[in-house]
Design brief:
223 residues; Rossmann fold; 5-stranded mixed barrel; 3-stranded antiparallel sheet; 6 helices; binds adenine
Length: 223
């Protein structure tokens, strides 16, 4: 799954026997890769569309594993454009009922941090080792905002100890966690969520999305 056409196009290029299904104002591409049946979809940007697509992939298409591929804005200093980061857990930086004494990112019966599947993380580490690719790990913060603001970025970093930020991962995490389906979120850095973020995002979206997609395909081979 990706959130933008640019995030799934490098996946679709490698998928065989593609059959397109339209459902719920979205397109799902069913096909095969490395002898496995796969469904590729882009949700459109943001948590609501991502939740819808993730739920459909699991409930309508019966996916038993969900891998998300895309780009992110860097928070941590060691993350540079093109670097890969896998989420160890994800949180929603724009979820706020602190007026009722709750921490940021929390609603009753929810979790601030939703961890990704440990076995998929181990598989990703193995792929990185064998292919000689540097793969970083950390908390990814999600919100319905494109962050191009050093102050907001610093607040997200401090409040959630987040390494990177994007706009869909935690939504996918909440859906997969609730439905008890293993999931994994990988992002390649497209910008640094600062004043240049809009420019950098446009400049590096394609290249970084492909870096992430190629890694995800290598994981699918080994599933
Ligand atoms: N995805 C990639 N860069 C981003 C940014 N700066 N803010 C939100 N989502 C992003």
């Amino acid at each position: 799954m990706g959130a933008m056409p640019e995030e799934i196009e490098p996946l679709l290029e490698k998928i065989d026997d593609i059959c397109l299904t339209e459902y719920g104002a979205n397109r799902y591409y069913i096909g095969t890769y490395a002898g496995k049946e796969v469904v590729v979809a882009y949700s459109k940007i943001g948590k609501v569309f991502a939740s819808l697509t993730a739920a459909m992939l699991l409930e309508k298409f019966g996916c038993d594993t969900l891998l998300f591929s895309g780009v992110a804005g860097a928070i941590r200093e060691d993350l540079h454009i093109g670097d890969l980061i896998m989420a160890e857990s994800l949180c929603q930086h724009d979820l706020d009922i602190t007026a009722f004494g709750h921490p940021y990112g929390y609603v009753p019966e929810g979790k601030v941090y939703v961890p990704t599947d440990e076995k998929l993380r181990a598989l990703a580490r193995q792929v990185a080792r064998e292919k000689g690719i540097e793969l970083k790990e950390g908390i990814i913060a999600t919100g319905d905002q494109f962050i191009a603001d050093p102050e907001r970025k610093a607040w997200i970093a401090e409040t959630f100890n987040a390494a990177a930020l994007e706009m869909e991962g935690a939504a996918v995490a909440v859906v997969c966690d609730a439905l008890e389906v293993p999931f994994f979120v990988l992002r390649a850095i497209s910008d640094s969520a600062d004043m240049e973020a809009g420019f950098d995002f446009d400049a590096f979206l394609h290249k970084s999305a492909r870096i992430s997609a190629d890694f995800i395909l290598e994981m699918v081979r080994r599933l």
